[in-house]
Specification:
The structure holds 2 protein chains of 2 kinds. By secondary structure, chain A is mainly β. Chain A has a domain of 38 residues. Chain A has no helices and 4 strands. In chain A, strands 2-1-4-3 form a 4-stranded antiparallel beta sheet, with no helix packed on it. Chain A is elongated and about 55 Å long. By secondary structure, chain B is of the alpha/beta class. A 7-stranded mixed beta sheet of chain B has the order 1-2-3-7-4-6-5. In chain B, β1 and β2 form a beta hairpin. In chain B, α4 runs antiparallel to α5. The longest helix of chain B has 48 residues. Chain B is globular and about 95 Å long. The mean pLDDT of chain B is 94. The chains are: A mainly beta, B alpha/beta. The interface between A and B is medium-sized, with 17 and 23 residues.
């Protein structure tokens, strides 16, 4: 059918970001995640704090 | 034999409308079946979720089935003068009562779980209402063989189905505590509030202050990561009494028109806040009384995107919107003045 809509399925991801060196890491969303949740210390710079800066869904192709 | 062609003309003259009614009815019936399955699926999902997470001592099914049938009687509008406080009173009674009923499901229920379950409950109740309304019009039209009655229903079905599908998908986002498209306003303002002292100002609403280029900035949003929109109008009245802001900037999600891009940004004037209209009325009234200009920034999305998991395009707009907020503040306030930034929307999955 010409007007048949494609079903959209979103895959949830969390973006972790260091508040000091701005290093980001994209991973699958885990239950309990929320935006601005404080995670562990940054292993890259050693001084920054990692927070979840974004959570979003990406279309599964 | 050559007269055979005249038979269909007579058939269509006499039974044309009935044939059309039959075809349209089967279309609506398919939609109705889908609506029923959405309602049943979401109802089951909610009951299972409550049983698994709260582990209540008694079966909550009967109690929940009663909630799904709750209705709200709007105040009489024969004399519309003073109707807004009446609507606010009725809506708040409904909100407070639903919250209390959810709280009574288990003794050890957290604030976050109450807000999640309340939102899912509203989604299931809306699906129940949609199903019952569509079924009512469909059966009435069929009973009376009333073709004109079925036509508006046929035209509305795609819109009803779009909303119903969105509500069905929304349940999963609420269960997992994922941010939804409508949460973009609280997400932007929540980021500005990081590293500031957050204080409670109204029910499920927080605010904080910080200095910015010689100006005083106040931020306000619903208290996340719970699934709530807070009480921004009540909070605004309290902040106004204390801080006297010179401008108000409101950030919210807005429904896009077909053809517009998801996550596109638009600036304007006036109170950017949805809902039944009582919060907007209160905000406009207070701002007018104190002669405070209201600036608005909206992030465009569809109804489905607004109540389901936030899309990447929407999340990615946050940095641009933040810089636009600061531009508005720079352009419309001078040093030593104060600006209030309000992040409007459901703050599920978004802290501050």
């Amino acid at each position: 059918m010409i007007f048949r809509k494609k079903k959209e399925v979103l895959d949830p991801y969390s973006i972790e970001q260091c508040t000091s060196c701005n290093k980001t890491n994209k991973r699958q969303f885990k239950e309990g995640d929320f935006i601005f949740k404080t995670m562990e210390k940054c292993t890259s710079c050693g001084s920054g704090q990692i927070i979840i800066s974004k959570i979003f869904g990406e279309l599964i192709k | 034999m050559w007269m055979v062609w005249i038979v269909p003309i007579f058939i269509f003259m006499l039974y044309g409308q009935r044939i059309q009614l039959y075809i349209t009815s089967s279309d609506i019936n398919r939609g109705l079946e889908k609506l029923k399955s959405y309602r049943d699926d979401t109802r089951k999902e909610l009951i299972d979720y409550i049983k698994n997470t709260l582990k209540p001592s008694e079966d909550p099914t009967l109690k929940l089935d009663r909630f799904f049938e709750y209705f709200t009687i709007m105040p009489s509008d024969m004399d519309p003068n003073g109707i807004v406080p009446k609507i606010r009173h009725i809506m708040r009674t409904r909100e407070d009562s639903t919250r209390d009923q959810v709280k009574s499901l288990s003794q050890n229920i957290s604030h976050l779980e109450i807000s999640k379950i309340t939102n899912i409950l509203e989604a299931v109740a809306t699906l129940q209402l949609l199903y019952k309304m569509v079924r009512h019009f469909f059966l009435t039209a069929k009973k009376q063989n009333n073709f004109p009655l079925i036509l508006p229903l046929q035209m509305m079905m795609p819109f009803i189905m779009e909303e119903a599908e969105a509500l069905k998908i929304a349940v999963s986002a609420f269960k997992q505590g994922q941010p939804i498209g409508d949460g973009i306003g609280p997400m932007i303002v929540g980021k500005m509030m990081l590293d500031t002292e957050k204080k409670s100002i109204a029910l499920e609403t927080v605010w904080s202050e910080k200095d910015f280029e010689g100006r005083k900035l106040c931020f306000m949003k619903a208290e996340g990561p719970a699934a709530t929109v807070g009480r921004p109008a009540d909070a605004l009245e309290k902040i106004l009494a204390e801080k006297k802001p010179d401008i108000i900037v409101m950030v919210d999600a807005a429904l896009k028109l077909e053809g517009e891009d998801t996550g596109s940004i638009a600036q304007g004037f006036g109170a950017a806040i949805g809902g039944i209209g009582t919060e907007r009325f209160q905000i406009e009234e207070v701002a007018t009384k104190h002669n405070i200009p209201i600036y608005a920034i909206v992030i465009k999305q569809s109804i489905k995107e607004a109540i389901t998991l936030m899309k990447k395009e929407i999340a990615d707009s946050s940095d641009i919107v933040s810089s636009q907020i600061y531009d508005i503040i720079r352009a419309n306030t001078s040093k030593d003045q104060c600006a209030l930034v309000i992040g409007v929307g459901n703050t599920i999955g978004v802290a501050q």
